[in-house]
């Protein structure tokens, strides 16, 4: 085993230990209870976003993001955008 491979294995073990303690170690892996689970969650979330973008088209996907950023507990983003004239 090379020194580089040994370091990689060790760092994966460290990341897995952190993930098992509840720390997010992979961007988009929030909620995963292990390094492997976080990697799979992140990949699935990325694919889900790409799929929605394909289904809605570029403009629809951007609109969904704009309105989502305007949502609050009492009103949806669409309602707030309409009230503020941001359609």
TrEMBL record:
Residues 1-87 are annotated as: Disordered. It comes from the Eukaryota. PROSITE patterns: SMALL_HYDR_PLANT_SEED (PS00431). The lineage of its organism: Eukaryota, Viridiplantae, Streptophyta, Embryophyta, Tracheophyta. It holds the Pfam family LEA_5. GO terms for cellular component: cytosol. This is Uncharacterized protein. It comes from Escallonia rubra. Belongs to the small hydrophilic plant seed protein family. PANTHER family: EM-LIKE PROTEIN GEA1 (PTHR34671). GO terms for biological process: response to abscisic acid.
